[in-house]
Amino acid sequence: MTAVGIDAMEIWTGKLKLDLAETFAPAQGDDPGKYTKGLGLRASSFPDVYEDIVTMGANAAHRLMERKGLTPEDIGRIDVATESAFDNSKPVSTYIAGCLEQVYDENFHHANKGERKFACISGTQSLDDAYNWIRAGRNRGRAALVIATDTALYARDDPGEATQGAGAVAMLVDEDPNLVELSTEQGYGSADETDFLKPNQQFPSVDGKRSVNVYLARMREALEDFAEVAGDIHPGDYEMIPFHTPFPGMVRKAAALGYRHIIRGTDVGDLMAEEIGHQPMRADFETDDEFHAAIKEYTDALTETERYQDWYANTIEPTLAISREVGNWYTGSVHIARAAGLKHARESGLDLDEARLLVASYGSGAQAEVHAETIVPGWEEEIGALNIDEQIRNRYDLSFAEYEQVHDVHNHETETDVEEFTAPEDEFAFDGWGRMGERKYRYVE
Ligand SMILES: CC(C)(COP(=O)([O-])OP(=O)([O-])OC[C@H]1O[C@@H](n2cnc3c(N)ncnc32)[C@H](O)[C@@H]1OP(=O)([O-])[O-])[C@@H](O)C(=O)NCCC(=O)NCCSC(=O)C[C@@](C)(O)CC(=O)[O-]
């Protein structure tokens, strides 16, 4: 069977930065440790006044097409995943195609375009759609462009404000990929949940604490479902595990739960039992409360072991490096986690040809999905082409007063006229409103 997967990717961060420890925490009267240690975040990315989901997505896609020497005729599909759409009918992919057509002689009239919605997991679902389209033999030799783009803003003074972010990831899905091959096996954990939603409103209604528990519950189901189809998982099977990362502290919790689950019945589980005892079993406790207290105590002990900490340092920690600097990108989040892990591997000189990743996606509402990926030769060159470090370094560092202005600029309910903080160069920029209320864009040389 021909390999199908991600051939190349590009990342585009919003060009403004809110420093959480230095700027946000003091203004909120919070200890900076809540952000840097508790949530695990240093900063959030924000879009400048001329940036939005279309410009960020189009800029990431343009860089990708230029680097791979592609023209519109090479692309048979443009799938956009977002939960920040501003139009209930016309998909963001048409706006992005319109932008790209400004800079290419050819057009995308023969490309199938769409928009996927299921909170953050729709980025991975769009990858699936592209994968299935190619596997079904409907692609006529053409590749799919999958773009995950979001401005993850919360209402002012919502607890979620600490986890905001903005950016886009563009991925080229093709046969014989140069980055990762996707597995056919997938596991799902999906349930009708009311923890994070946007019922016809821009900013989410969030029950933050509950959303954390729902994430963990659905992720556990997805892991179990994946093991049903792919067989038992051993902690040594996967080089890294990129998770959906709303903030690194969430992944810290999910990783401990996942590890506890996958070591059961393995040699690692036996060694752990010698060190900290066996995992508590429900049958040994009279009440749920007693059982949960024992599980918590066991998990705390487990995360203190050297064995767990080594696994975490190699398998999880590298995937969090970009998220720490940019915050939650919703649909793009798990894809920057994969990129961060591979970037770390390349910089550390690791040979990962044919090594495996376990990719754990999640979207509120709620659904988790787990699948495996095989890293393919060529990955180092692809990852080496990313300039995300430079983009992160070059962001404009907002004062708190400027942050308040930028939040208002991107709030659909407020009208604010604020000067741009950076100057667009060789990129798409928002260019005002059209006669039917549509957004207009131009390429700025
Ligand atoms: C996540 C919350 C609820 C946190 O909200 P909060 O109540 O402001 O924060 P907290 O008081 O719970 O503190 C956060 C952590 O920092 C610690 N802490 C506190 N102070 C200090 C200190 N001085 N030094 C060191 N640590 C400190 C504190 O102990 C805690 O760690 P934990 O106990 O949880 O391990 C909030 O930010 C929120 O509502 N976020 C939005 C929802 C969210 O991100 N949920 C995550 C799961 S759902 C998901 O991932 C889906 C999503 C959000 O991406 C959307 C989608 O799918 O579309």
TrEMBL record:
Keywords: Acyltransferase, Isoprene biosynthesis, Transferase. One of its GO terms (biological process) is acetyl-CoA metabolic process. Residues 195-409 form the Hydroxymethylglutaryl-coenzyme A synthase C-terminal domain. GO terms for molecular function: hydroxymethylglutaryl-CoA synthase activity. Its EC number is 2.3.3.10. Gene3D superfamilies: 3.40.47.10. InterPro entries: HMG-CoA_Synthase-like, HMG_CoA_synt_C_dom, HMG_CoA_synth_N, Thiolase-like. Residues 3-175 form the Hydroxymethylglutaryl-coenzyme A synthase N-terminal domain. PANTHER family: 3-HYDROXY-3-METHYLGLUTARYL COENZYME A SYNTHASE, HYDROXYMETHYLGLUTARYL-COA SYNTHASE. Belongs to the thiolase-like superfamily. HMG-CoA synthase family. This is Hydroxymethylglutaryl-CoA synthase. It comes from Haloarcula hispanica (strain ATCC 33960 / DSM 4426 / JCM 8911 / NBRC 102182 / NCIMB 2187 / VKM B-1755). The gene is mvaS.
